[in-house]
Design brief:
The complex is a heterodimer of chains A (about 270) and B (about 300).
Chain A (H helix, E strand, L loop, with lengths): L8 H24 L2 H4 L14 H9 L2 H32 L5 H10 L5 H15 L6 H23 L4 H9 L4 H9 L4 H17 L2 H6 L6 H11 L4 H21 L1 H11 L5
Chain B lengths: L1 H9 L6 H4 L7 H30 L2 E2 L7 E2 L3 H7 L2 H34 L5 H9 L5 H12 L5 H8 L16 H13 L1 H12 L3 H9 L4 H12 L1 H17 L2 H6 L11 H11 L3 H28 L3
Antiparallel strand pairs in B: 1-2
The chains are: A mainly alpha (about 270), B mainly alpha (about 300).
Chain lengths: ~270, ~300
């Protein structure tokens, strides 16, 4: 913007950001101060000392390492599936003509409004009948399936600006419709694919409802955290460590790649302003 | 060659001449279905099947392991006279409306303030946006600590200000629990409108501000007449995503109150969870889900129409 900006802008924004970060700050402080000091509130200043006790003991108390492994498996596979399938579908919807094209696209795109709870009961019954409860695919399949509602749309929006000449040139050079996708379109769609990957990874890593309902022993981090909170209510320092471990991976990815997130959010609804 | 000419002159079938001389290519529709097939399998299992099955289940009375009994619209009539369900509908409305309103208002205001000094406020934007990336399981743990009746942050601050009489069990009191959960939820959501509105403001051409500056406009009137109207696309995107996400919200309520106390924070999504997964009344839970789905469709129809127009 041009002209003199009011002086109060920076202090006000800084103050809001400071207030915003207090809850996360408290979480970190609880994890590095002895319990005895923080039971009266993590901000109490009568006595201040530093300890990593909670960080070293938490691994024995909770199966955190295993839960992190489960989380990684679920999030990575649930992310890889739409990374491959959404571009393929977006390409088919954008460049190929086939029966039911418009109807299928409308159904997929509008599934975005579907609340997650709708799919929970029928899938629970289905997994139970198939003996798939506590199998990580019981979570991965709906995570991937539900992602197409936005991921196909996101990638397809990028294709609007893709030069059509390239496609036509390849067609004349005897490149078939599937080869055109793999050789021409896919290598040029790395930006939207990255956007899909980051959003999907964050959401599947953080997801709580589906793992809580479908999994029993093989719990990912958020579900484990939800469970231990009810059981051990007097060791806040250790739960705080577990909470930090749960959130550190998606948070780091999220902050580093936030640019893609905004790009994704903008195209997700079809506004291209 | 004669064949080729004949087809093209006829013009009613087959690809153009250019393509005819080439080696045979896979037809477009075959290729399309090959590319789409894996997606359709996943989508069918996790979206189409559950929606159809939910609608089917909603016409049956299922109690635990007893055989299902067809009751037609019975479940729906029962819902309409179920006080708990009507309360859940009200809670869902209050929750979605206020969560979206406050998230978007705060985020939009912050975005406009940040746009005045884009470079200097970058760190602050990332800090506020960070809350959006925190798992709701973790958000739940953090805010449980903040609302603790004995040594929670809120009561601590009130005590420090000498307002001991306002201290209370924020999540344990039916009058304050819903507001408390909404505040925690808004804390996570503000980053999204902040980012989308900020991106909209950043894309306003610089010449608009130059022209306004030459005409003697002050920063505040540039805000009012240029920034506010031209950041509306970002506001619309934020409303769309925030509203739909709040209608789907489940995780945070599960962590903070579990729908209590006395069901004062129970949304329709949570009502379904209780009836189906805890009380094992699957048909009844399914009927409440169908009502939620219809409600979501009514709310989102104008937004979907906008989205659907973009589908070519």
């Amino acid at each position: 913007m041009i002209g003199k900006t009011p002086v109060w802008v920076l202090p006000i924004v800084a103050l809001v950001a400071l207030i915003w970060i207090v809850p996360l700050l408290g979480l970190v402080i609880i994890s590095i101060r002895p319990m005895a000091e923080t039971t009266l509130g993590w901000w109490s200043t009568q006595e201040i000392s530093f300890t990593l006790d909670a960080w070293t003991t938490v691994w024995d108390k909770f199966p955190l390492a295993y839960a992190a492994w489960v989380s990684t498996k679920i999030a990575v596979i649930s992310t890889l599936i739409p990374m491959v399938m959404a571009p393929a579908a977006a390409y088919a919807f954008h460049y190929l003509s086939f029966p039911m094209r418009r109807v299928l696209l409308l159904i997929i795109v509008n599934a975005f409004v579907l609340p997650n709870q709708v799919v929970v009961i029928p899938l629970f019954l289905l997994w139970r009948d198939l003996g798939m409860i506590d199998n990580m695919w019981s979570v991965i399949i709906p995570f991937a399936g539900l992602s197409f509602a936005w991921s196909v749309f996101l990638v397809k929006n990028y294709l609007e600006d893709f030069p059509k000449d390239l496609i036509e040139a390849a067609q004349i050079d005897a490149c078939g419709p599937i080869a055109r996708f793999f050789h021409i379109v896919l290598p040029n769609m790395l930006t939207p694919i990255a956007a899909v990957a980051i959003l999907q990874f964050m959401w599947t890593w953080n997801g709580l409802l589906l793992p809580v309902v479908f999994l029993r022993d093989e719990l990912p981090l958020p579900a484990l955290l939800a469970r231990v909170q009810g059981v051990y209510d007097n060791n806040f320092d250790q739960v705080a460590v577990a909470a930090i471990i749960t959130t550190i991976v998606p948070l780091a990815i999220f902050v580093i790649f936030q640019r893609y997130f905004t790009a994704g959010a903008q195209t997700k609804t079809g506004s291209k302003e | 060659m004669a064949d080729v000419t004949a087809t093209s002159v006829d013009g009613s079938k087959g690809p153009p001449i250019g393509a005819m001389r080439l080696p045979r290519q896979l037809s477009q529709s075959k290729a399309a279905y090959i590319l789409l097939a894996p997606l359709l399998v996943f989508f069918g299992v996790s979206v189409i099947y559950p929606v159809i099955e939910t609608i089917r289940l909603s016409f049956f009375e299922i109690k635990g392991l007893a055989p299902a009994k067809a009751v037609g619209l019975g479940n729906y009539f029962k819902l309409l006279s179920d006080e708990n369900f009507l309360r859940a509908l009200r809670v869902t409305f209050v929750w979605s409306f206020s969560a979206t309103l406050f998230s978007v208002m705060i985020g939009w205001a912050l975005a406009m303030a940040c746009a005045l000094k884009p470079r200097e406020t970058m760190v602050f934007r990332v800090l506020i946006f960070a809350a959006y990336g925190v798992s709701e399981a973790v958000v739940g743990f953090i805010w449980l600590g903040i609302y603790r009746p004995d040594y929670g942050l809120v009561n601590g601050i009130l005590g420090g200000l000498g307002l001991e009489n306002m201290q209370q069990a924020w999540l344990g009191n039916p009058d304050t629990a819903l507001t408390a959960v909404i505040v925690a939820y808004v804390w996570t959501q503000v980053g999204l409108p902040l980012m989308t509105c900020f991106a909209s403001i950043q894309s306003i051409p610089r010449t608009y501000f130059e022209a306004a500056y030459i005409d003697g406009a002050k920063p505040m009137s540039m805000m009012r007449h240029i920034v506010m109207p031209l950041s509306l696309p970002g506001v619309r995107v934020a409303i769309f995503i925030n509203l739909l996400q709040s209608l789907k919200a489940f995780d945070l309520i599960y962590m903070l109150t579990g729908g209590g106390p006395v069901r004062s924070t129970e949304t329709v999504g949570f009502f379904m969870f209780r009836e189906s997964m805890l009380n094992f009344k699957l048909g009844y839970g399914a009927a409440s889900t169908v009502v939620l789905l219809v409600a979501v469709l009514i709310v989102s129809t104008p937004l979907i129409a906008q989205r659907t127009r973009a589908v070519k």
